[in-house]
Amino acid sequence: MWAKIAVLAAVTLAFQRILVMPGMPAWFGHFILPIIWIVAASLVRKERHWPYEALLLGLAWDLLFGPVVGPGGIAWTAACLSLYGLASVVADRSPKAWAAFGAVGTVVVILVQRLAVMPLGLAGFFTFRQLALSAVLTGLWCGCVGAVLALDLGKHWRAYHVRKLR
Amino acid sequence: MSRTYVLRTVLVWTLLELLAALQVPAIGGTPVLFSWLRILIEPVAMVAQGTVDLAIDVGLGARGLQQAMIENREMRINLETLRARQILLQADLAALREIGDFAGPDAEFGAGALIGRCIYRDLIAGTMEVRTAGSFILAHDTPVVSAKGLVGRVLRSEGHRHWLQLLTHAAAAVAVETEDSLVHGLALGTGSNALTIAYVPRQAELERGALLVTSGGDGIYPPGIPAARVTRIRESDEPFLEVTAISTADLHAIRMVLILPEWAPAASGGLP
Asked: How far is CA A83 from CA A92, A93, A95, A134, A135, in A?
């Protein structure tokens, strides 16, 4: 199970890499696809421990996209912890909740990463529009994933097979 | 959220930030982390340096204070020494003045007279100790005078130190007479500053304030030395007047005395 999740996370990171490759539309760069894993962890997981997975995800993000390794780990664990807190007070697990959690997680990741690199003198130009765009796009991505999960396609597929075998 | 949870978060985030700081070069080329450490260490180093400087200054101050206290103590000792020396010099000066007063008696008694310095006196016991510059063995009953009058006689002599019996001693007796030699008497010591003049006839013409000088009749003291001054005369049923006098020598204040070792009663012709 854990290996499968790790592979899927790596695939997500690879897709993220593809999104920011030259030739792709510029607004693709505002997606943060791996956010889905901390959103899923906060909405689906029953038992919560300190988010080492988010730490690894953040360090991997730094390796692929950041100027230095470290701030990503801080930002992603901070986002995961904040989503844990949000999930403990919000009972909704609908696609809308997935979208909202994705947006919140994106905002936290971006802001905390900016704060973390600020003492290092690496904080670049940053606007509220960019932040809002990233939050909306990533929230939509998470909402889509939540909607797919809500449809439970696997269950329908298995029912279809059962009917066909009869 | 437990305390461990928060501590773990803070620790991990701090380590990650330090890791990032280690990767970013600063202006000098060294990592930002080193400049942070320098910023953290510099105030501590400054405080430590300041503390060390303060400790050194306090130590130097304490040392200076100790030195000043020692010097102050030495100066006080020197001051006390100077004061004592001043007192001694004043005493020496007064003694020298008294010696100057001896010009008359010394000339009168010849070169054999010795000058002695009073180093101890007990007026109640009627004794005095004097010290001479040279070592002498003085004869018993050698007369001793001061610039103002008769002091007493030598009882014991031992090198530089000589013990006297004052004329106020309770057992002392000096033959005296008035300056005109008309009235004779015997000055007896009373153990105090007063003298009793005995054997003064009732018909004697003696007035209060009259000066009594030695007559030489006792064979000890040379004649003509001022000995006492009459302070009280009283008639009684006795055949003699009750005469009281005080010593002319300032026995409680004299510093220098003149010892007359070579005076011989026979030479003076004072003996009856």
From this structure: 13, 13, 15, 17, 14
